[in-house]
Amino acid sequence: MSAPHAPILPGATIGCLGGGQLGRMTALAARAMGYDFVTLDPDPDCSARPVATRTFTAKWNDVKAATELAALADVVTLEIEQIPRATLDAVAALKPLRPGADAVYLVQDRARQREWLAREGFPQGAFRTVVNAEECASAIAAQGPSIVKSAHGGYDGRGQARVREASEGAAAWTAVGGGCAVVEQFLDIKTELSVLVARRADGVAVVYPPSRNHHTHGVLTWAVTPSGASGEREREATALAQAIAERLGIVGLLAVELFVLHDGRLLVNELAPRPHNTYHHADRANATSQFEQLVRAVCGLPLGSTELVVPGAIHNLLGDLWVNGQAPDFAAALAVRGVRVHLYGKRESRPGRKMGHLSSVGATADEALARVCEAYAALIPKGP
Ligand code: ATP
Ligand code: MG
């Protein structure tokens, strides 16, 4: 019997629920360190497949397949939080599941997550949990302009409707799919930040310097570090993220998305218990990539330094850049000094689908950001 916190050393097998781009990049880091990597994803052509030792093609509620994955693994992590409780519990009954089922269950439902943040006293905007069209309309009447967000399954701004007045409540309720939703007051955002925390089972934790993020229509466009926020604001943001990770008992990674309002308040937007799109440049900007850090955290290894080595930025590449299935001219992006192209191996492009990202470093945050934006501009399809 090994000690409770004995490290899981290279040569062992890491299991991962989810084989999207986050699973793929975790697999690349794990393989580089000498681990085997097994994954499970409903898409037979998922991004992680070419990198994984073995891929199970199965639905999230396929407890049998998840059990088979767990049987092969020494530790199991995940890259997506929308996994049914029964699947999480079946895995956790066999092998260490990191982060644990309770934390994932709490985070995977937007209403549950917001109610928990409120109970714990973490700062967030005004919201109401609603379960029918009438409640949705009265929440809007009470709060004013709001965003109605489905409690389940939304990502990249999907399952959300922006409304100005109560008369739009019923249509918004239908648009987000009914069931259960959170009506969030529309906030006067000055800047968006995120903070990534890595934590081991024994409670040892490290935190990355905050990233500053820009979204368009609810989808991340670019992210840059250093954030440009004041030292005091950055300390406040990192302390908040660390406190949330601690309270949730996260083992692995926790990304905390934050809003800085024009009135100066710092509020929690949402939590993600996994690698996060706003830290994809950490492989260049920080001493340790978020994917290697996840491997270190779930395997109980010494956590890597999160020190900022050089300013860095990323720009997402959405399927909109592909015209009639034709990939953009990546050579044009690679011609920009400092820029790298990262692609997730997705064969099918769709508008809004995350196909890859550009990363760059620079002498300053502005320079790193300008470089990824210039490279991105070079990829935009020209008119007919
Ligand atoms: P992702 O998966 O990309 O994180 P998501 O679908 O979970 O996105 P949110 O993070 O809730 O969606 O929102 C996406 C973006 O929409 C935010 O980053 C912010 O730019 C904007 N947004 C969300 N909530 C609010 C709000 N209450 N007021 C103003 N803007 C908001
Ligand atoms: Mg978000």
Describe this structure in words.
By secondary structure, this protein is α+β, with helices and mostly antiparallel strands. It folds into three domains: 13-97, 3-Layer(aba) Sandwich (Rossmann fold); 126-185, Dna Ligase, domain 1; 189-377, D-amino Acid Aminotransferase, Chain A, domain 1. It contains twelve helices and 17 strands. The chain has helices spanning 21-32, 63-72, 85-94, 101-107, 110-120, 133-143, 169-175, 231-248, 282-285, 290-298, 330-334, 365-377; strands at residues 13-17, 36-41, 54-57, 75-78, 127-130, 146-150, 160-163, 181-185, 189-199, 205-207, 211-216, 219-225, 252-261, 266-272, 312-318, 339-343, 354-361. The strands form three sheets. Strands 9, 10, 11, 12, 13, 14, 15, 16 and 17 form a nine-stranded antiparallel beta sheet that branches. A hairpin with a 2-residue loop joins β11 and β12. α6 (133-143) crosses α7 (169-175). The mean pLDDT is 96. Residues 257, 269-270 line the site of magnesium ion.
Strand content: 25-35%
Question: Based on DSSP secondary structure assignment, what is the total number of beta strands?
Answer: 17
User: What's the Cα radius of gyration?
Assistant: 20 Å
- Average residue-wise pLDDT: 96
Ligand species? adenosine-5'-triphosphate, magnesium ion
The CATH homologous superfamily of the largest domain is named ATP-grasp fold, B domain
| CATH topology (level 3) name of the largest domain | D-amino Acid Aminotransferase, Chain A, domain 1
CATH class of the largest domain: Alpha Beta
Number of helices: 12
> Per the principal axes of the C-alpha atoms, what is the gross shape?
globular
Helix/strand order: EHEEHEHHHEHEEHEEEEEHEEHHEHEEH
Number of domains: 3
Name of the CATH architecture of the largest domain = 2-Layer Sandwich
